[in-house]
Amino acid sequence: MYHVVGAINNAGAYVVIHFKYVTNVTDALAKLAAMDKTGSEKKHNVIIDMSLNDTNTVLKRRFTETPQTKLLYNYLIARLFTNEIDFKAFPAGGMNITGFHMVDYDTDVTVKKYNQVYRRCDLKCGSFDNTCPTSNGAAFAADSLTVFIKAMDLLHKNGSSNFPTNNPYPKNSGGLACAEWPNAPKPWIYGEKLIGALKKVELDGLTGKILFDEDGYRINFTLYLFGTTSQEGPAKLGTWESHPRRLNRPRLNLIHDTKSVGLLNVDPDNKTYIVTTILRDPYMMEKIHPRPDGGNWTGNDRYEGFCKDIIDQLMRDLNMNYELRVVADGSHGSKQKGNVTHPWNGMVWELMTERADMAIGDLTISAEREKVIDFTKPFMNLGISIMIRKTPGSQFDITDMFIFMVPLSKEIWMCIAFAYLGVSVVLFLVSRFSPAEWLINDPMEDDGKKKTCVRNDFGIYNSLWFALAAFMQQGCEICPRSVSGRIVGSVWWFFTLIVISSYTANLAAFLTTSRMISPIGSAEDLAAQTEISYATSREGTSRDFFRESKISTYERMWAYMSSRPHNFPKNNAEGVRRVRDENDKFAFLMESTSIDYHSNREDCTTTRVGDLLNSRSYGIGMPKGFSKKNVVTLQLLTLVESAFVEERRKYWWEEDSSRRGLCKDRQDTNKKGEDTSSSLSISKIAGIFIILLCGMMMGIIISILELFYKTKIDAFRKHVSI
């Protein structure tokens, strides 16, 4: 049995068996009684490897002395004599007993062969039938003798002259010494020939078809599954065939519905199912607010969260009782390499050892886990993504008061300033050269005489004023009258139109995208640099994904992470904290749904960047062969299709603010129904107010200087004191 379990575990399908060595029937019953006292309502699968008489005694006494445990125990008979067990004590069932035998006493061929060999089973039975089963040992002995006779017959038919017919032993020794101390015994000189003949034997015996392979092992035989359940008496349940797996045919063929097989018997209706879980926001959390009546939360009411809502509704719809238990080691379940006695940990190990009936949380469905436990259909789809701290753009400081200058480079601003001065000077010159810009006035003097006056509106000050008004998209009281002046003014207007339009569009786009600027935009960016460190959690499927990936980018990332084992956070909570605390020096790789949740909470300084690195799903885990798997899966799909799961996801991710409050912009969005995160703050446009204030102050100062200057000139002309 030890080697059988070892072979199963080496194949990846782990089976946990606790071996109990017993000396007699009393010792075996005592150990079973100790299991009764644990008070657990979970199923116990007990393998009995004892003699036929001891097995009969144990089963009879368990049936009569502890009838209350009949639904909690499944007995598997390890030896091939299940059909010889005395079922008279429970002919209508009452215990879950399962086992195999090799003698098919339901066929006429077997009965005929038995009658030919034995004539009668014992003194009480005159024939071999179901009411008088033969001893399996006798059947094997008969087949062994028949095979040996057939092999000897083959040797003689082949005419082997080297095989003796009278004394087969060498030198008339009369036999072989099995212990020729101190020398090892010598093989029989005719042994190889006899073994070769035995391998060629092919016949139909009491134990079925007898055929051997080249190594001498029996092949193509059939085991008959036999047993009882708590509702049915002894019956043939199916067959198991030893044909090679390459034939792609099922080895186990059940005759009855699988529910009637003892090892797969349906759980009692009043059973309380144990559901293991793990505390992870927002999937499963302990309640932090007190009860309305002032007491303490008890039982399953101690917890809340996305998965708590799902399991509550699921069990309510199925009318099943359940108890939530937080996994002791705080792990989802990872394979422990080199650990034969404890190959997995976390919730997966709880299911493998049947300490729990189901597992719910952010438990990822993976091929490695599917080898040892079962999963329902997924209730949430997601993938691995990158979580980093939000950072401003590298070209400017987000608190810069002159942010409105950023859309255009310093070189462009300088070129615009020189263009403004150049256009003003050119306009002044062409206005001086063109006769059309000169005007002749006849103003009236004080003494009544007229005096001719020639003037030109486009002096240097008016030229500067005209160019500035055009650049600011404002009107001006003067315009060029000459063809040359109008050409200069037109190209300047065209120039300012393009510049202002480009500036406006670039400023709008700049303010929109500035908050999205990030040094990392994808996994390729992360793998190509070393300034920002990154890692997954220490245990879980995210780490397994990078370790097993064959994609070059992910292989480089795993090489980087594995070279820094101290850099792996213990869990997701530690990883999120490091992203927030290490000031743009750490990126955390975890499930996209968890990133979205944490990015909308607390200080709101984190975000998710890049596409999903893979595709994965969350499901409800359960032990292999769990009787309620189908009904749980179907009801879970009903919850998904009815949008119940999506409604709870939206609540816990986007609306709940009872703990770790939502970001302010998220709260504003929920209240107003629109995103207000694009509003400009005073710190971003304070520069234009400073320019306005400086302009007004300069105007006031110049007006005062003009007043003093004019007053002084008038006093000088009129020869009066100020």
Walkthrough of the structure:
Helix content is 39%, strand content 14%. The protein has 722 residues and is an alpha/beta fold. The chain has 4 domains: 5-170 and 189-254, no CATH class; 269-382 and 617-665, D-Maltodextrin-Binding Protein, domain 2 (3-Layer(aba) Sandwich); 398-442 and 453-512, Helix Hairpins (Orthogonal Bundle), CATH 1.10.287.70; 683-718. The strands form 8 sheets. It has a 6-stranded mixed beta sheet with strand order 1-2-3-6-7-8, with no helix packed on it. It has a 4-stranded mixed beta sheet with strand order 19-20-16-21. A hairpin with a 6-residue loop joins strand 6 and strand 7 (235-241). The longest helix has 36 residues, at 682-717. The termini are far apart. The model is unreliable at 120-131, 257-266, 393-399 and 667-677 (pLDDT under 50). One of its GO terms (molecular function) is ligand-gated monoatomic ion channel activity. Residues 282-353 form the Ionotropic glutamate receptor L-glutamate and glycine-binding domain. The record marks 520 as: Crucial to convey clamshell closure to channel opening. Residues 272-655 form the Ionotropic glutamate receptor C-terminal domain. Keywords: Cell membrane, Disulfide bond, Glycoprotein, Ion channel, Ion transport, Ligand-gated ion channel, Membrane, Postsynaptic cell membrane, Receptor, Signal, Synapse, Transmembrane, Transmembrane helix, Transport.
